């Protein structure tokens, strides 16, 4: 049976990656598999081509853009591209995998538009910008300047929330996990 798509987007610090990892690890019955994206950056650490990403040169990336091979892509910095290949998603869906996307808000909106009813888009929202500030400062991984940049970006990203199928406010992680599981289960079982 053909798989379906589940798209997650959120401002940094909202708990999106924690919720996605929990779904992937604790709920194998959902048959979830990450979308493998392309990037023009070099592999980091133990990253392998075709596992974490498909690593392309900027020229290869531009050629695929010109050939309309991406569902969505973005040039984050000059010559630093990230994108999702139509062919890779199709391969995973045809194998019966339910493909999970952990993407920025613009990518999430574009993937949803492309796949329409075959995709569920979920926006994980912090309870407030103030709470997001506390979480980012609590991580102690970013400079104050980086935190301010992330908060500014988060305010912008929050304006996209209404374009998603479901908004889950993560003011309590366990509640947000339960709500996410319920929404994902409902979406996947409606299809069967």
Description of the molecule:
The chain has 7 helices and 9 strands; from the N terminus they run E-H-E-E-E-H-E-E-H-E-H-E-H-H-E-H. The protein is α/β, with parallel strands linked by helices. It has a 5-stranded parallel sheet, sandwiched between helices. A 4-stranded mixed sheet has the order 4-3-6-5. The termini are close together.
List keywords for this structure.
globular; 5-stranded parallel β-sheet; 192 residues; 4-stranded mixed β-sheet; 23% strand; alpha/beta
Instruction: Please give the count of helices.
Output: 7
Low-confidence stretches: none
Q: Give the class from helix and strand content and strand pairing.
A: alpha/beta
Rg from alpha-carbon coordinates: 17 Å
Shape: globular
How large a portion of the residues is in β-strands, by DSSP E? 15-25%
Q: What gap, in angstroms, lies between the N and C termini?
A: 9 Å
Task: Write the H/E string, N to C.
Answer: EHEEEHEEHEHEHHEH
In total, how many beta strands?
A: 9
Q: What is the assembly state of the chains in this entry?
A: single chain
Helix content: 40-55%
**Rounded mean pLDDT score:** 92
Major sheet details: 5 strands, parallel
Please list the strands of the largest sheet in the order they lie side by side.
2-7-1-8-9
Briefly say what this structure is.
This protein is an alpha/beta fold. The chain contains 7 helices and 9 strands. It has helices spanning 16-26, 58-66, 86-94, 105-115, 129-139, 144-158, 173-190; strands spanning 5-9, 32-34, 37-39, 53-55, 70-77, 80-85, 98-102, 119-125, 166-169.
